[in-house]
Amino acid sequence: MFFLCPLTLGQAFGLLSFSWNVKGLPHPRDTMALSTELKKQTQLREVAGVLLQATSVDNWSQIQSFEAKSDDLLICTYPKSGTTWIQEIVDMIEQNGNVEKCQRAIIQHRHPFIEWARPPQPSGVEKAKMMPSPRILRTHLPTRLLPPSFWDNNCKFLYVARNAKDCMVSYYHFQRMNQVLPDPGTWEEYFEAFINGEVAWGSWFDHVKGWWELKDRYQILFLFYEDIKRDPKHEIQKVMQFMGKHLDEAVLDTIVLETSFEKMKENPMTNRSTVPKSILDQSISPFMRKGTVGDWKNHFTVAQNERFDEIYRKKMEGSSINFCLDL
Ligand code: A3P
């Protein structure tokens, strides 16, 4: 089945103007200034062959000279692989299953996003500097772009990988609703962009392979989205042990319940409902969209699937990593 909802960049900004008009009719000049600013933020620029948001690239020297500490834990993911999910799991473990403590802030503010930069707001690096240790941070960077101090300090890394097909589908819908990422075009166009790594944070293949190859050389706990979905308690226990925590069965059960898709979809601290529509338009696609394994079957044509499998074989040749594509 095809899911076609192409929105041009202009239309996306049209939606943006509309949402402002119904709220307070800004002067057209202000709308234009906002559009120009958002368009600037929509741009992607390359760093060593990896596309990143232009605002992060502008801040690149600050990001690269980030000073990691030996007790930092870095949550690492390719976009749309379950970042929010693992963040909530980690925070629930850190807070010993205390739900109220996890409500202290929206999830985006709990773990500084080290490559995030959108002046005049404080950057991810600045937020991390203000955070007391032991810090829990997050990134979407591939291994070769990670600030070197993370390796030098032998930090702990928690990587979550999601199968490429579901990741592509999730990213496509996310780019449709995210007004500060480029418009994804049609599903067919997006399919090409994704397999060629022409999306923010670059190639899924390079990202996953890079982290997988380093998993035995550094302190990397490598998890799969599909495993967390299949047996959340088991995977949450692994995270708990990796973090050096000991929680009893009842607390673990609470964490499993509170981090379920259904609970997180209703939770304003995790579902992005506090983000303005001018940035994330959830009427186009909800942030907490489906949270399943195998939705790719509703999007890939037979021909696309065959082509993808062929490309996957070539790009992942020699790698021992295995993904589950259906539960
Ligand atoms: P879908 O678009 O397939 O629904 P990220 O946080 O890295 O941006 O990833 C978002 C994806 O993770 C979305 O996938 C979202 O629904 C899914 N997700 C978030 N919380 C989840 C949970 N508790 N259980 C399962 N999937 C979850």
Keywords for this structure?
327 residues, alpha/beta, Rossmann fold, 4-stranded parallel sheet, two-stranded antiparallel ribbon, 17 helices, 9% strand, disordered N terminus, binds adenosine-3'-5'-diphosphate
CATH superfamily: P-loop containing nucleotide triphosphate hydrolases
- How many independent structural domains? 1
Taken in chain order, the helices and strands follow as HHEEHHEHHHHEHEHHHEHHHHH
CATH architecture: 3-Layer(aba) Sandwich
Low-confidence stretches: 1-31
What class would the helix/strand composition place it in? alpha/beta
Mean pLDDT: 90
Question: What's the helical proportion of residues?
Answer: 40-55%
- Given the structure, what is the number of helices? 17
What is the makeup of the main sheet?
A: 4 strands, parallel
Query: In CATH, what is the class?
Result: Alpha Beta
Q: What is the third-level CATH name, the topology?
A: Rossmann fold
Bound ions, cofactors and other small molecules, one mention each: adenosine-3'-5'-diphosphate
Number of strands: 6
Radius of gyration: 20 Å
Name the strands of the widest sheet in spatial order. Answer: 4-3-5-6
The amount of beta strand, in percent, is 5-15%
> Distance N terminus to C terminus?
20 Å
| Envelope shape | globular
How do the strands and helices of this protein lay out in sequence?
Elements: H1 9-24, H2 28-42, E1 44-47, E2 50-53, H3 54-58, H4 60-64, E3 73-77, H5 83-94, H6 99-102, H7 107-110, H8 124-130, E4 136-139, H9 149-152, E5 156-161, H10 164-177, H11 187-195, H12 204-214, E6 219-224, H13 225-230, H14 232-242, H15 249-258, H16 261-266, H17 302-315
Helix pairs in contact: 14-15
